[in-house]
Amino acid sequence: MTRHMNPKKFLAEYVYEVEKDFDVDGIPATWAASSISNKPAHRFWDDADEKVELHFFDGEDTEEVKIYATSHDGKLVAGSNSSSVGILDAETKEQCMQYKGLVFPCVKLLFSPAVNESGGYTLVIETSDRNERKSVVFFLELDRNGRMVHQPDTIDVNALLQRSLGPVVSQMNDSFELSSTSPLVESVRKGYSKALEDLRAGLESRHLTRVSGRPAGFGSSPFSMDGRLFLYVTQNESTQSGPRPPADLPKVIVYDVADKCQKYSLGGHEDAIMWTAFSPDGQHIATAAWDGTFRIFNVSTGDCKHVIGPTGGQCWSGAWSPDSKHIVLCGMANQESQHETFVAVYSAETAQQVNRFRNDQLKHWVRCVAWSPRGEIAIVHERNNVWIWEPFENRTISSFRVKVEDWIMESYAAVSQVQWVNEGEVLVARAGDGTIEIWNRVKNIKWRLQRPEGAGKERGIGIFRWVKEDQTLRTFSRDGFMRAYQLPQ
After folding, report:
1. Is residue 417 within 8 Å of 430, Cβ to Cβ?
2. Which range has highest mean pLDDT (24-33, 36-45, 127-136, 399-408)?
3. Are 79 and 98 within 8 A, CB to CB?
4. In Å, how far from its chain's centre is CA 228?
5. Which of 119, 144, 153, 465 is most enclosed, with most CB atoms within 10 A?
6. Mean pLDDT, to the nearest integer, of 297-315?
């Protein structure tokens, strides 16, 4: 009988193990010394130095927080249960504000990487109506204390509901002897309540800046480093089911957040756009699409500077080098009538290939890469491998592999996110079950924050943030808790 797997079933059955640990010159990483609080290097989630329940939505029953984001300076944390967005002060854990003006469910939160013109913060809220395949991005302007700069128009739904339904309920009782608890009256109450909630949401959001579209995925960097420009994609449905007129093909929109206007519409791709990113110096924009091409655009003019490809297969993701002179690109290539995965570094100036990563196990998607300030690239393979590659010496210096004996669990267990911290000395990697591996590349020591066995999806980690000042990793989980782990280097 064929077995089926889903995230909840996977988390209930999977037991995390490592098959191959990070190493330096063939020497496996060793456990770091105990932390300041005498905590071991290998611990489980609740063995944290600090555990705090986060209350984003006071005074109402809400679903668990599913989506998180932290501001560039770590001062604010935003959370959403799909229907509302709350802002907390990350240090005091006090609520700054709650925003309820979502017409569609929230699917992503993202802070600008820089302060806005008033010295505060800009929060991007991506909302989506999947039934209508419609996405809208809102820009929420916050002050230095995490409160909305412009207070929205709103109504008291409960008060208006009672005043409006009073005459209706009285008339139904007099004419038909229907009480206020009658199912017929209750259905009217629910329908009218929903209509008033929609009206309230529309009022609260009507003066917000918004655009129709969505930021791309797979590690995209939609903001320029100064926070002024923002990238989103439109008309981004796949064209594989049939051709479309050029005007209807996928586009990347460059939006000026400060002036609240579209700056450029970047065309040329003929299939769904998967990844977009500004170069760190803000001079170029790179894109990857299913049409088998990568494109590099000039930010100043909007002109396409280079087209890399077609590769003969779908293109998925990439990452800029810290100095903006090179770019690593990932996709599929058609080599001698066979498709193969490729990861390659190109010159941003000439679009010429510099080096290509080679490994016999590179047979599945690479949708996540991270370029270290030290010049090393972390390559995340869909089938449980992470490789550390020095592209200019074309040398693999380390690797890591999650142990998965049951093939049906492979795609769920694989590492899904990596991030270099401490100027590239430390790599943080999150596995599919939520376990976090931390590896100091220079000292070749490691830490592990492991998911407890059998924990359900509700304990999944939403995001993590490295705090350099006190060498602490903070995690924000879907059970509503922030946990902090001190990891002295």
Report:
1. yes
2. 24-33
3. no
4. 20
5. 465
6. 96
Tens-place pLDDT, residues 360-389? 888 888 989 999 999 999 999 987 899 999
Cα 129 versus chain centre, distance? 18
Question: What ranges do the domains of the chain cover?
Answer: 157-204
